[in-house]
Amino acid sequence: MTIPTTHPRYFSLMTREKIVAGYKNGLVALEGLIAHGRGECFDYLIGERTTDSARMAIDAAAAQILISNYPVISVNGNVAALCPDLLCSLHRSVKKSMLEINLFYYTKERESKIFQELAKYGVSNVLGTNPDNLVRIPELESNRRLVDSNGIFKADTVFVPLEDGDRTLALKKMGKKVITVDLNPLSRTSMEASITIVDNIIRVIPLLIERIKYHEKNSSESDLYTIVKSYDNKKGLKDALFIMNRYKEDQI
Question: What DSSP string runs through 82-128?
Fold first, then answer.
């Protein structure tokens, strides 16, 4: 499908095409299309832009990743379809980080296709694909309870874009810091995460990489801890809801 750049929904439609292509190529579960459509609705309500509130969350996320001893980036089908190149760039920008595939609607075929997609962008060491290394997250019954013993299970910070709320809560109970990207500020994931970035994943990752690079050059460890400690996730979610409500009223 050819979408003219002048179309008022160009960005949204191009993103939609990516997720549809991901489904056709075996990366995305059918249910993932529904999840994307739900997020797209909330993106309209923030004007399809990165808000100041989201930028504050991105800054806090960058600081949290940098002070972590072992950050792990969780990859599902939707993320692999939407921004595998950006995700691999994020991984390379944080030398101590690892990528781990973790799927709610698991099949070995999908896992293999996601691995191959990441490999296209130069990442071959991806966790979560060896059954012998999988262990179970306590108090979780879904397929996502199985994580790599060398990855998410021992991570101190987990970046889980487009996550489900049950696992976010379970990871928090294990003492981990959880960073998520979720366009719905009312989701369980948003409310349970340590840092929630209410924005589109495609816009978030480049900004996150930018802030990581900035802090590496300009911020001390003490500065980073101060940023994380002063960040209030509940306030960030309230700000997102206020922005959505104001944008809605401005459009009517």
Answer: H-HHHHHHHHHHSTT-EEEE--SS--HHHHHHHHHHHHTTT---EES
- Rounded Cα–Cα distance for residues 215 and 106 (Å): 37
Q: Which of these, 58, 57, 84, 59, lies nearest to 73 by C-alpha position?
A: 84
End-to-end CA distance of the chain: 31
Pairing between β-strand 71-75 and β-strand 134-136 as defined by DSSP bridges? unpaired
pLDDT of residue 1: 65
List pLDDT tens digits, range 181-205. Answer: 999 999 999 999 999 999 999 999 9
**pTM score, two decimals?**
0.93
Q: Are 111 and 84 in contact (CB under 8 A)?
A: no
Contact between residue 164 and residue 142 where contact means Cβ atoms under 8 Å apart: yes
* Residue linked to tokens 């690892």: 98
Structure tokens at 31: 């249910």
Contacts 24+ apart (CB under 8 A), 176-185: 177/64, 177/68, 179/61, 179/64, 179/65, 182/39, 183/39, 183/40, 183/42, 183/43, 183/46, 184/38, 184/39, 184/42, 185/42, 185/237, 185/240, 185/241, 185/244
Q: Specify the range with the lowest mean pLDDT, choosing from 5-14, 155-164, 201-210, 232-241.
A: 5-14
